[in-house]
UniProtKB/TrEMBL annotation:
One of its GO terms (molecular function) is glycosyltransferase activity. It comes from freshwater metagenome. Gene3D superfamilies: Glycogen Phosphorylase B (3.40.50.2000). InterPro entries: Glyco_trans_1 (IPR001296), Glycosyltransferase_grp1 (IPR050194). Residues 173-306 form the Glycosyl transferase family domain. This is Unannotated protein.
């Protein structure tokens, strides 16, 4: 988004240069006072009670402010028009089970603050001039929660196929690739059980997380687990795989676009953001339930059919940075004009 709006200032609650992308260092970043508390920069959830008042106390003087929000940033005060680009509505209010998981302290804090955060969130939403969602599933969720009109603008796939490639991993081509954080809801264990039904295929899993050891204990010996791979190594994996598999419910289905940029199809859960990025029968296949049987059947289908690499690459190109930037700037210009003429 910063590249789409190169002349814009960036406002954020926390900024720790060593913990984010190095490209951020070239941006004009304005932080809130809570950023001065070093412990909060590395443990964001400790700041939970402070975030709503911190954003409410922030005033941005601009013709148009774009708030990239997952529940907080749309609460800033603005002198001009306000656009909310929604990654998701506040999970601590509307999807508490998914947000808190087994963490009782997080659940207790969210429940205790809900009587304050609910009205705060709706007041913030009422101050927004235009809403944009990153996927159809988030678009529908915002509509249902707030009864507002919502545009759809998918984020760009920024992982380029024409970058450097590192072949040092030494994995034979033709494997099934799974790129995911190793968390329970990602259903990587389901993918592992599915691959046991197709023993002629090797599974390569890229990601790290608390489920790593459990998943390794479930996987066939031929399975390769990788973490900390470089972009150049990941390009080699996308190039050499025969297909990508993803079995989680995602708000946006990014990894199939990365695979498509290399001409590789995907087998994905027919749910959430994957419905926006994978066309069944054209750029991959979908399965209705995250079960070993359904995933195994999808793997057999995706590896037995013939796929058009040009069609896959063309699909990835429709989610390019250029397309995203052009549409975002169009929405900004329209919103600013409507504000001036209102």
């Amino acid at each position: 988004m910063a590249r789409a709006l190169p002349q814009s200032d960036v406002y954020t609650s926390f900024y720790e240069p060593s913990a984010t992308y190095p490209e951020m260092e070239s941006l004009d970043i304005n932080t809130m006072p809570i950023n001065r508390i070093s412990a909060l920069r590395s443990h964001h959830r400790l700041a939970f009670p402070l975030l709503a008042p911190s954003f409410s106390a922030t005033k941005i003087d601009a013709d148009v402010t774009v708030c990239a929000t997952a529940g907080w940033s749309h609460g800033v005060r603005t002198s001009g028009a306000k656009i909310a680009y929604w990654y998701a509505p506040a999970r601590w209010l509307y999807q508490l089970d998914e947000y808190a998981g087994p963490r009782r302290s997080v659940r207790a804090a969210a429940k205790a603050m809900a009587p304050f955060l609910g009205p705060w969130d709706r007041h913030a939403v009422a101050s927004v001039d235009r809403h944009i969602a990153l996927s159809s599933v988030i678009q529908n969720r915002i509509r249902a929660l707030y009864r507002v009109e919502v545009d759809l603008l998918a984020p760009p796939s920024t992982f380029r196929a024409d970058g450097p490639i590192d072949d040092s991993l030494g994995i034979n081509p033709g494997f099934i690739l799974c790129v995911a954080r190793l968390l329970p809801y990602k259903n990587v264990d389901v993918v592992i059980e599915a691959i046991k039904r197709t023993p002629h295929l090797q599974l390569v899993i890229v990601g790290r997380g608390p489920e790593a050891e459990r998943l390794k204990s479930l996987a066939p010996k031929s399975t390769v687990f990788l973490e900390g791979v470089t972009d150049a190594q990941l390009r080699s994996l996308y190039r050499d795989c025969c297909a990508l598999v993803a079995a989680a419910h995602e708000d946006f289905g990014l990894t199939p676009l990365e695979a498509a940029a290399f001409g590789r199809p995907s087998a994905v859960l027919a749910s959430g953001g994957f419905l926006d990025t994978v066309i069944d029968g054209e750029t991959g296949v979908t399965f209705e339930t995250a079960t070993p049987e359904a995933v195994s059947e999808a793997i057999n289908r995706v590896t037995s059919e013939t796929w058009s690499e040009p069609a896959l690459i063309a699909r990835a190109d429709t989610f390019s940075e250029a397309v995203f930037a052009a549409r975002l700037n169009e929405i900004i210009a329209t919103t600013a004009n409507e504000r001036r003429t209102a």
